[in-house]
Structures are given as C-alpha cells and as structure tokens.
Amino acid sequence: MFGINKKSFIYRLNIQLSIFVTMVIIIAISSFSYYISKNQSQEISKQLRHEALVIADHLSVSNAAYVVTKNYTAIEQILMKTGKFKNIKIIQISNKNGKIISNIQKNETGDIYPLFDVSSIEVPTGKDILIQYSGNNMVVFQPIMLGDVIGWVKLFYSLSNVDDAEKNIWKNNTISGVLLILILEISFLILLRKPLSSIKRYTKFADDLDGLKGDKVNVDDSSTEMLMLGDALNRTSYNLKEQHNELNVALDNMELIAAIVENSSDIIVSINKNFKIEYMNSAARNKIEELFGDCSDDNVKNIFPVQMQDVIDKCVFKKRNVEGLESIVNESSFVWKFTLFESQEVIHCHAVDITEKKKIEKILKDSERLYSTLFNSANDAIFLIKDEIIIECNESAMKMLGCDSSGILMRSYKQFFLDEMRVRKNRVATISSYMDDAIKGISSAFEWKCICCNKNLFHVDVNFNVTAIDEKQFVLAIVRDITIRKKTEKRLIYQANYDRLTNLPNRNLVLDRLRQSMKLALRVSSHVAVLFADVDRFKKINDSMGHGAGDILIKEVANRLQSCVRDGDTVARFGGDEFLIILNDVQDISDSELIAKKALEAIAEKFVIHGQDFYLSLSIGISGFPDNGLEAIDLIKNADIAMYKAKDAGKNRFQFYTSDFDNQAKQKVQMEAELRHALERSELYLTFQPQINLKTKKISGAEALIRWQSNILGFVTPDEFIPLAEETGLIVSIGEWVLRSACEAAIKWQSLFSDELRVAVNVSPRQFMEANFSQIVQTVLTETGLNPTKLELEITENLLAENAQQIVAIISELKDMGVSIALDDFGTGYSSLSYLKKFSFDILKIDRSFVMDITNNDEDASLCRAIAALAQALNMEVIGEGVETQEQLELLDTIGVDLIQGYYYSKPLEEDAFQKYVKEFRV
Fold first, then answer.
1. Tens of pLDDT along 778-831?
2. CA end-to-end span of the chain, whole Å?
3. Quick check: 868 pLDDT over 70?
4. Domain check: are 352 and 477 in the same one?
5. Suppose 697 and one of 116, 151, 664, 923 were both cysteines; which one would form an S-S bond, judging by CB atoms 3.0 to 4.6 Å apart?
6. Which domain range does residue 354 map to?
7. What are the residue boundaries of the EAL domain, all occurrences included (predicted)?
8. How many domains does the structure of the chain reveal?
9. Which residue in 765, 708, 706, 709 sits closest to 739, CA to CA?
C-alpha cells in the first residue's frame, strides 16, 4: 500500500536483531566480567593482606624473646621456615632503630637465602602497624613488642595473584561470550522464520482493509503476540465495516431531527461564540416577526435574555450548559435553555413561551393571598389533609415543626406523629384510628406526641375535623403545642420525688421503689439488697470548706455511686451525706458485695474541688429482703445499723447486717465502761519498738505503743479499744497519759545510755485537733525535762483532710518548740504531694503493708523507692516499718531509707526489756 520493499524489510529486521542481541551479550558479559574481576581482586587482596598481617604478627611474637637475647641463629631459622610461604619475597628483622638483625629473600625459583647487602632499614616512628604498597608488593612493618617496641618485622608480600585472577576471568568470559553469540544468532534465525512469514501475510491483508468488506485473515497462533496481532486486524476489518453502516444510519437520523426541529412549536435558534445567528426554526421566525415586524439580526438578538454574554462565556469557556433564564419582550415571557455543541462550535438556544402561564399564576396568587392571610393568622398549627397527605399548612405549623413548607407538604401526616399505641375506651388507639374516627364523624380530640423536623418529640393537643372544599372532603387538623404545660406538670412531679442537688430519687420515691422491688422479688423468688451508705467525715469537710464545696462533693459522690450499679438498680439520696442503693433481682444477698466494693473504690479516688484535693470514704451497711426484714422501713433500719458497725470497724468498708449486732452492741457498751476506768486502775501500759539507724547501725530511738490488760476483759488489742476511745473522746486523756509516760521513759534512757534516744508517740486526729494540744505538749516537756528534739509526734494521713489552716498552725507551734513531726502510714490513706508541700513534716514512715511484699512485688518496691526519693528531695528522714527479713532490710537500705523498725530486730518490748535490749544490742 505504501510502496515498501517487504523483502528488504525482513532482511534489515534480521540484521538489526542480530546486531542488537550481539551488543546486548557483549555489554552484559563485559559488565559481568568487570564486576566479577573487581570483586574477586578485592577479595584476593583482602585475603593476601590478612595473610601478610598474620605472618608479620607471628614473626613479631615468635622473635620477641630472641631479639632481646640476641639469639640471631634462632631468628634466622624462623625466617627460613616462614619464607616458604608462597607469596613471601623478603623478610627483615631489625632492632627498634632499624639496624638489620636478620634478612632473607626468595628468588623466582623459590630458593631462600640470606641477604647481606642491607645493613639497616627505615622504620616507623610510632608503635602502630604500617602497610605500604610498592608495585605488586605489599610491605608490612610490624612492631616487636615486649612492654615497648624492641624491634621491627619488615615483610615484602607479593600481590601478583590479583592480576593473574583478573586475566583468567577476562579470558574465560570472552570465550564463553563468543560461543553464546553464535548459539543465540542461530537460534534467532530459526525462531524468527515463521513470525516473519506471518508478518508478510498480515501486511498484505492490511493493504486491502480500505475495501470495507469485513474479510478475515488466517491467524498465526504460534505465539501470543502474533495471535493478538491477527485478532486485532480481524477486529479492525469488522469495525470499519460496522462504522460505515452506522454512519449511513446517523445521516438518516440527522435528516429526521432537522425536520422535527424545523416544525417544533418551541423557539429554536443556533448561534456561534460571536453571537452570530447560524440557524432558527419556523417558530422562531414567526414569533420575531410578530413582535418586531421582521427577522433582522438585531430583532433576533432582542428576544434573548439580557445576560447573553455571560451565557456565551459559560458555554464556550467553562463548558457548562445554562437553563432557567427568562426574557420579557413586549409583555411576552420566555424561559431559555442553552446547550453547547462543541463538535459544531455552536450554542443551541431553546425557548418556551410562558406568557399565558404567567397570567394564570398571577390570578391564582391574588386569590390565595387573602386565604393565606386568614389561614396564617391562627396561633394553632393547622394542617389540611387529603388521603393522609398534608396539602397545606399555616405558618404556625411550620414554626411548631421547625421547618418550611417544603419539609411538610406532600408528606403523610403520620410522619409528624409518634407511632405508638394507647388504650382508649377499652380499645387500643393509634393516630390512624383517631383519623378514622374523624372521617366517620366521631369526635377526635386527644393528646399525643408530635415529631419535629429535627426528630425531637413534644406534647400536643390534637383535634381532627372533616371539612369540604370544592365538594371535596378534607380533614382539618388543629394542633396546639402543650410543651410548657407538660414541663410544669413534670417539674411538680419531679420535685416531689427527686433530690434537687443530685437529681437522685429522694426518700419518698426510694421507699416506693423498694416496695415495688420487694413485690417483684416475691413473684420471681429472688432477693433484694439494700445498701445504706454514709460519707465518712463529710461534716468536717463541709464545715471547713463551706457548703458550696460540700454540695459539689455530694454531687460527685452521687455520680460515682450511679456508675457502680447495674441498669435497673436504684441510687437515692436519703438525706445529708446518706445514700441508699437498691439492688434488684439478686440471687443471694452476698451478691451485693461486688457492688459495695466498687462503691468503696470509686469514692476512694481523689476529688478535686476548686483546685484542692480531697479524699473521702464510705461506710456501707447491707440488709437483704426477705432475710433481714419484710417491710421497707425495717430493711432500711437494719442496713443503717450495719452501716454504723462498718464505721465502728474503721470506716471505708461495708458490713452485712446480722442478728448478732445486738450482742455486739452490748459488748461495746461494756468495753467502753471498762476503758473509762483503765487509767485509774493502771491497766494501760507502754511498749517500745526500737528504731535502727542504717547508717550508724545504732539504735536511734523507739516508737511508744499502748497496750491494755483489762482485769475484766483480759488483753484487749489496740485495734479494738483505740477506735472506741476515738469515738467516745477518751483518746484525749489516754493520749496525754501516753505522751507523758513516753517522755518520762526517754528521760530515764538518758541516764542509762550514752546516746540520747528519740521517742516517737502516735497522736490521734481527735487529740491533735484539741484547742490546747500544743500547750499540753509544752507542759509535758517542761515537767519531764525532756529535750524537745528527742520527741517525735506521729500523725496519720487521715488527719490531713481536716481543717488545713488549723493543722498548719499546730504543726508550726510544735516545730517552734523543736519537736519533730512524722507522717505515719504514708501512702495508705489520703496521700497527696500537696500535703507534703503544705505541711512541714520532718519524717515520712513507709507503712508495713508496702514493706511486707517489697521483695516480691514490683509495685510495692517502686512505691517504696518513690517515697524514699520524695523524702530525700524534701530533706526528710524515711522510716520503714514492719521489717521482718534480711532481704527487706537490704532493699530498704539500697533505696535510701534512713531508719527501720520491725520484728527483724525486735518486737515491741516493755520498758525493762527494752532497756536490756539497748544495752546488749549488736547489729
């Protein structure tokens, strides 16, 4: 077809492919040979360098002694043996100044013989190995060391192996490359014979494609590429024939479309980008002649919208169609649509005459304006409904539903009323049933819930009435928003049943819920648990911080308690700082233990009010239905009794109600009576537990601990009688006795021991907060004569939540006297760094609960380490309590604890035993 010499083309293709393959192979083999030779050369060089260094090092080590002893014969023997290595050419041994001691050389035949024509060599100045290269030789200078440099080994090592390896690689690869080129050339000639024949046939077929006959060529399937090429030629032949047929059909269609456009009643005009008229149909010509008298270009342009230049810009440059524009000419109105046809570079303009439609719309608007004014003046929402579809609504309806008419009209009225069922006159009523009643003429005034367009619900009064308009039946729905009325009703009900501060059920509602829970439990044979919770020490916080802070704490306590219970359980505020929890449908009263523990943990977490940290705890009493009462009042009363038992046990815990509480109450009364006379009967006594200084390994003091041996009750533990003394106030007089007795004991120790020992006395919160506590301490120190620096007063973290200002003042007075203040049981109560900053403590005591597991509990060990570091940073002493093993002692010593006390050294001892222990003490 194009006059190509096919034979010369095939010949050139063969030659070009052969040259290409040959060049590729040559480049590949050259690159590969170069890469391999370089890598192998480097590897051989590296290996030879390593061999030379090893040989030089061996010569240095083996000849060191002979150089010192000047045993030249031995040196020469070593050199003669070493010279047998293949690549060694010369070995020279010199003293440290370069004077030759021994010198051998190997000739080309491998014979080794000594050299006598060199008497000295130039040696390096330092002590390091030196490597030099000279032609194909590597020269190594290896120092001979014996403490210092005593001589040098100079080794000439041949590198000729590297060049030999490179030459062999190039030679072998060249031979392989020539053979590979010959093989590939022959293979290409054989493989290309059939594809080239197919290409000839395909080329001839392509020349004949312009006949548009749709013929097919025989496809060569010997390779995927030839198969694809044959298929492509066949598809091209078929597609050319089909396109020719489609083109004929398109021409027929264009003639039909042209006839339709010309005879259309709509105005159709075509313009180019310069606003030149290219075409207009009969309807356009008739309308322009009607409006202007003739169809001049200016008259044609006057029928278009005034913003035509913008239209042309959008169509031509932004490739956007434009529609909806209107033009008004001599009271005639037209609406336009503009479409760009890029292939023809014209804009087709289509206009519809809407003059009559505009006149009808104006008449309708005028007639509706009066109706709309009356319709929209109503305060109630009004909907006109036909076949369940809202066809009209007033402005009040739109305002009530919160959307415009487009969100209301042509929608089902059911969309705006809650789909629910109610009981009405002994039958189930729905919004649809009320509508059906209205259509039947039955009064349909009722209360329902309406749905805003934003899906919010609100209460409404609804009245459905049937009305007729133009002999058609409609339902007129009048709807009134009663949200304010409902809120008022709800507020009154809420105020009667809920606590205003916490929004929890109050006493009135919780009693009703408890009774309902009890009835349900009887029906399903389950239990109900009642938890009576009281916030410990809340009154003190409320009095010290003000009722505003107290209210915030109560609200937060309420929130935390609610997070602890299950769905369906009740948390109520019973009054003040008391809360009642009702647990429904429990299988056993003991199941409430989990909730009680969660409540204790939740309240134990830190509260932050106005930037200040607070720590609270709960005392919880638990009673169960039906085991602990069959009346709601009895269940609450018994839970209250159990709560007070929890407080007696130390607070921050829960207690199940048991019938034994009456007997326990009697025992408590008896213990109180005996405790009131314990001092006058001399039933109280002190024990002393030594405190050991880990730095000096000496006893530095002791902690005074009170004990009670009652004539009636026998031995009573401190855990039993000290809380009772706190509760009754007896702790004040008992505490003063302990302080005085401890100071008197310390005075005795001064006369018995050379080292003055410090005595530590525990002070209860109630005793510490007495108005004259500082004065009592001063009086005791004065009367006993004890140096104030030898008195340590220990207070617990629980005290720190009291009146902070008063505590700071008392501590300041005591420190002014010289008394040391220790914070006992640090980390077990209301620990806070702010306390350490606010209160000037001298000593921190690590509680025994942390020390007990310090060797096998990483958390306890980390906590003890942190406490010690904190104390050191604040210049405070650290005392570890409860030390019982050597491992505990060593670990505490490691982390920086200053003093320890515990059974590892001694249990608490009575005074005589303590004095004996101090005299005999040895670490």
1. 999 999 999 999 999 999 877 776 667 788 889 999 999 999 999 987 766 555
2. 117
3. yes
4. no
5. 923
6. 264-358
7. 668-922
8. 5
9. 706
